[in-house]
Design a protein that fits this description.
Layout: H1 8-51, E1 56-58, H2 61-64, E2 68-70, E3 73-89, E4 94-97, E5 103-108, E6 115-116, E7 121-126, H3 128-159, H4 165-191, H5 196-205, E8 211-215, E9 220-225, E10 232-233, E11 240-243, E12 247-255, E13 267-271, E14 280-287, E15 297-305, E16 316-332, E17 337-339, E18 342-350, E19 353-365, E20 368-373, E21 381-384, H6 386-401
Antiparallel strand pairs: 1-19, 2-21, 3-12, 3-16, 4-11, 5-7, 5-10, 6-9, 7-8, 9-11, 12-15, 13-14, 13-16, 14-15, 16-20, 17-18, 18-19, 19-20
Helix pairs in contact: 3-4
Length: 402
């Protein structure tokens, strides 16, 4: 707008308008200038963040020297199956010791954990049944002696023609009856646990002894004591559990779907957490021919020699069944990075530059894991030092987000 210089009224009218218009033009120009300067800088920062990959890391020379780089190795890996197991007492070496007669315990001679020999007394009980049978035996044995003497006299009288042969036959029949009765009661005494020596002593001394020793039928360790002094025991009850622990069983229940390839004689590797330094290997001695319908498992076992007594019943263990071997690619456990329940390794992209990549791993092989997928032939990975490299990657990611 043009105003003539001489026009005082026009200057007075349009002066304030021009002043405000100039200020507005200055402000608009400043905003445009500032916007023009800031837009390229913000775009550049956005471009830097877009190009940064949090799974990649470039390391300096010092850290690179601490890493071991190489390719996965190929080994003969045996197919294996691992299941939970437990140690049990060898059922063929257990004795449930009781009393064949009823009676009251009057003395305990051993406690749990003690080693006993075969025939050693474990406790003593007082039995009226035993004394009654002993009395019947003494009576029958005495009748046998009397019948024997009567028969001997009859034989002499027959020779002297004093009595007839019929009387001799009658006395011989009485002797046979007395002998049979004494023999039957003798068998009862043996069934009640009396030894031949004790029975012979009873024959000679004619003294009743109602105290009966409960003796161990095998040599082994007392696992359980189920009686106390004063307790009444019956013939059907178990007083002691004795087991020979020089050999034990390693038992496992294998799921039905995994037991098809198991067979007797199959190689087994055992791990016992309570004995980590013990290397145990053996062969399956038994594979059940039937499936347990309640658990859908197949019981298997391995015989385990235990001369030092270090393998104790009820110990937990694991059994690994080893089958035929195959050529498989493996990577060391030091190369594995575990995150969010997935397995990763660092793949070398260039010297000093690595990328974190997810892989699929299989069974364990010594200190390695079988590689199922995730790597291409010829690719190099960080074999040792992946843990420290991943920590550095995380630190770089935190700094970049600040």
């Amino acid at each position: 707008m043009h105003i003539q210089p001489g026009s005082h009224k026009a200057a007075k009218k349009w002066g304030p308008v021009l002043l405000h218009l100039s200020a507005a033009i200055v402000l608009v120009g400043s905003f445009v200038a500032v916007s023009g300067c800031n837009r390229p800088k913000a775009s550049a920062e956005k471009a830097v963040k877009a190009e940064s990959d949090p799974t990649e890391i470039t390391v300096d020379k010092e850290l690179a020297e601490q890493l071991k780089i190489g390719e996965p190795q190929v080994h003969d890996v045996a197919n294996s199956l691992q299941v939970a197991a437990r140690i049990e007492t060898d059922a063929s070496r257990i004795a449930r010791v009781g009393s064949p007669v009823s009676g009251r315990i009057i003395k305990l001679l051993v406690l749990e954990g003690q080693y006993v020999h075969r025939g050693e007394a474990l406790a003593t009980l007082h039995s009226t049944d035993l004394s009654d049978t002993q009395f019947a035996f003494i009576k029958a044995y005495s009748q046998q002696d009397l019948a024997q003497q009567a028969t001997n006299r009859a034989e002499q009288l027959v020779k002297a023609d004093v009595i007839g042969s019929a009387e001799l036959e009658r006395r011989r029949a009485e002797l046979l009856q007395a002998s049979t009765e004494a023999s039957a009661i003798r068998t009862q005494l043996r069934g009640l646990g009396m030894t031949d020596a004790a029975i012979h002593k009873l024959e000679t001394t004619r003294q009743l002894n109602a105290d009966y020793p409960i003796v161990s039928s095998i040599s082994g360790t007392v696992l359980e004591r189920k009686v106390t002094i004063g307790q009444i025991v019956q013939p059907a009850e178990v007083a002691f559990m004795v087991a020979d622990l020089s050999n034990v069983w390693l038992v496992a229940d294998v799921p039905e779907e995994s037991a098809g390839r198991l067979h007797k004689g199959m190689h087994v590797v055992v791990n016992i957490p309570a004995l980590p330094d013990e290397k145990v290997e053996g062969q399956l001695s038994y594979v059940s021919p039937v499936v347990d319908p309640a658990t859908r498992t197949i019981p298997v076992r391995m015989d385990l020699a235990n001369p030092r007594g270090i393998f104790k019943p009820a110990m937990l263990a694991s059994m690994t069944f080893i089958d035929h071997s195959e050529r498989r690619t493996t990577i060391p456990s030091t190369a594995i990075v575990r995150e969010s329940n997935n397995d990763y390794v660092f793949v070398e992209l260039a010297p000093g530059k690595f990328k974190l990549r997810e892989v699929t791993l299989g069974s364990e092989f010594n200190d390695d894991r079988v590689l199922e997928s995730g790597l291409n032939p010829g690719e190099k990975i960080v074999l040792d030092g992946a843990f420290h490299l991943n920590n550095q990657r995380k630190q770089n990611a935190i700094k970049g987000s600040e």
